[in-house]
Structure formats: structure tokens, C-alpha cells
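Quick one: co-fold with alpha-L-arabinofuranose.
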Amino acid sequence: MKNATLILDKDFAVGRVDPRIYGSFIEHLGRAVYGGIYEPGHPTADADGFRGDVIAKVRELGVPVVRYPGGNFVSAFDWEDSVGPRESRPRRLDLAWGTTETNEVGLHEFARWAAKAGAEVMYAVNLGTRGVDAARSVVEYANHPGGSLWSDRRVRNGAKEPFGIKLWCLGNEMDGPWQLGHKTAREYGRLANEAAMAMKRVDPAIELVACGSSGHDMPTFGSWEYETLDECYDNVDYVSLHRYYGNPTGDTPSFLASAIDLDGFIREVVATCDAVAGKRHAKRRLHLSFDEWNVWYHSNRQDEEVLKAKKWGRALPLLEDVYNFEDALLVGTILTTFLKNADRVKIACLAQLVNVIAPIMTRTGGGCWAQTIFHPMLHASRYGRGTSLRPLVSSPVYECRAYGAVPLVEAAATLGDDGSLTLFAVNRSLADDVALRCDLRAFGPLRPAEHLVLHHDDVKAANTEARPDEVRPARRRAPRLDGGRATVRLPALSWNVVRFLP
Ligand code: AHR
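Sure, here it is.
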């Protein structure tokens, strides 16, 4: 057993938690849409063809916002294909993923699905093969009440009321050489600025996300943000960050420490945004939209084989990572990192939501189950609301190849508006339980509510349709406070949520 301490005070406030940090992402890719959210004929499908079992799981997760329709897909997507009578919508080659898009599900259908799932739509425009004109037209189509070309077309297509989409992404990963219409930072920054001006003239209430780097390890990282924002700072509200982690060599100690990279990434983007603000004498500060993040590596080889066997297929099983227990621990530390940066990270989208690198899996014609990563996401989304407090943690460290000395305990805390206090903590130790001595004297009397623990003896254990509960949280009693202090036992390799009520 190792010992660690945690001190918390109401005055350690980082900022309000924006619930949109528990967002997610649905791309027209693999079986995310077709066979994921949409499967007419499935026993749980509703009149619109949406799977009821999937909607129930999404609602359970409490996802406030879903980014759509891509991803790489969006950079060659013509949004006009996805509206109007279904029978006249074109089948198109999806040049990003080498499949065929039927456009059976488009803007109207997705807006309807999102409403059923209790989420707001975050819509990405194509700044790859398209530009300013298509961007301003889709805003007019979606948000203008009526009396103009595109808004009247929406009404004719069956939606009298505007969709009222508030959040818009100015393209996707435009720094990536794989992206159709890939640009230099200055080229993209100018285009993003022009598109942003036009889109906000159509609807001044919208909020815009400029593309930051598609990874912390991109060779252009830093200069991309600086040059892009130097062009479009005044007309955008957020800059995006994307990051995926993997453990292909089986180095679990390094893998579990990946949130150290994530935290550095966030801090460097904040610093760059503020440097541009300084240079431009801007008073307004930008916020961060971490609109793609997850573990992604399990399915790489399988994807190559699927595409080799069926290029231009429809609804192919792509990016179907089966997540294991260590992935859930990493996801937990990513969520605590977002909470600790709640003053600047206002949106985050777990990429993705269903079947494609997702917490929710389905079998076409069959069941729907929660992957391991579903659990920390659900806990954070449910209890990580209110004000984020930064705990002072003193923890023993372990050595790992990628990051050197890393604390065993990673923690964050939230103070709910009802006075409830929630501690989130991961014990990264492979071998030792940790006794975490918590000093909560600043909060006055608190009643222990519960201690949720996610642990499995096998880091590679996963949930499947046959064994959906192989990795699932256990509920324990939370410790009693004694003079404002309590000791929580964090089992070796565990995700913990400890809740106290006022
Ligand atoms: O989420 C999968 C893909 O990852 C997205 O399409 C792209 O934006 C990123 O590279």
C-alpha cells in the first residue's frame, strides 16, 4: 500500500464546467450512421429508422452536443446532397474513407436523431473542396427562419422551424496532408476568416471553431495555430485540438501517462491563442474545442483488410476498436485533464459515439452494448458538473519510458450547484493500492454518498456482446469524514468516483 494526500478548498476554483466537454462525434464513416444510429427494420427502430437501444445508451451518457457529419468525410462532402427527397439524393464516392455514401441520412434526419438523443448538433462545413459560398448557404438553410432561397428550401423539405445550429466547425484537420483540400496555415487562416465573416452575417448568434492541429505531434504544431489565428482571430470563438493515443507496443505504464502529453498540448494551445491576442491587442480570449479525442489503434490492421476486400462498400466495419480496461483508465485521466483545464476547454468530443472508435457498439440486426470507455465517460458526464476545483495532490511517482517520473494518482474535483462534492481519481499503479488521505475541511459537514470503482485484474479485459459487463463499475461505500478528513482506498489500476452530499 502506498500513501498519497489530497487537499481541496472551495477557493481552488478553475472555472465553471461547460457541459459541452462531454460531447461526442458521429461521422459518416463505417457503421456509425448506417447500422449504428440508423437501422430501419431493427427490432428497436422507431418510425424514422433510428435504433431505440442506441438512443437509450446515448441518453444514459448524457451527451450534450454531437459533432457531425465529419471528420475527414466532410472535406469532400456536398451538403446539398443530404437534403430533399431521399429518392433523389445522389450516391457519392466518399473519398476520405474509400466507401460509398448513399445520403439516406442527411441534415434533417440527423437533426431529428440528435433531438431524440437529447443532444445539440455541432455542424462542420467543407473547407476542403468547397469554400465560403457553401458555408454561408448551409447556415442559411439550417438557421434562417424563411423568406430566402435556402431557408425556403428547408421549409419545402419539411422543416418549417430552423434547426438553430449554434456551433459550427470551419472545416476539419486542414493542417493534415491526408485532408482533401489541405492548406498551409496562412491559406487556411484566410479562408476560415472569410467563411466565418459570411456565416456570421447570415446568423450572428453562431459560434465558430477554427481548425487547430490534428495532433500534438504534427510537425506544424504551434506555427499552425499562430499563423491561422493571426488571420481569423477576430471572427472565430474556439480553436480545435485533436488527439488519439494508442499502446501498440504494450507499454502500459507509458500509455497510462498519456494525459501528461494532453495537458501540455492544452497549455501550449492556450499560450499560443493568448500570444496572438497579445500581438493583436485583442481583449477577447479564445476558448478550446477538443473536438476529437480518444484511444485509437486497435483496429488499424483490420481496416486495411476490410478496405482491400470491399473498396467503395457501404457501411463497412471500419475503426471498430474493441476497448479494454487500460483504455478506460486512460479515458478517465483525459476527462480529469479536461476538468483541470475547465477555464479554457469549453467543448470536447469523444471521437466517436457509435461503432467507430466508440463507447457504444452495435451488431447490425443484433444487440447494443457499452465498451469499457463508456463508464468513465458516463461518470464524468453525470457527476462532473458545476465548478471544477483543482486538488492539491501529493503522490508517489513511478518511472515510465515516455514521460519519466509520473504521479501514481491523477485527480480532479467538482463542486455541484447543489453543494455536492465529487472526487475523480485514477490510480495508475500496476501493483499497489493507494491510501488517498483527503483534507476536505473547507467544505463543512459532508455526507458520504458512494464510491464507484472501475477495476479489472486484466488490463486487456474487454466487453463484448456476449459479455457486456466484463468490465463494469462496482459501488462501494464512500468513507465517513472525520473532522473534515477521509481516507479513500484506490485499488491498483482503478478509476474512482467518490461522492459526498451536503
Ligand atoms: O475520427 C476519425 C478521424 O480522425 C476523423 O475523420 C478525422 O478528423 C481524424 O483524423
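If it helps, Residues 27, 70-72, 172-173, 214, 292, 351-352 surround alpha-L-arabinofuranose (CB under 6 Å).
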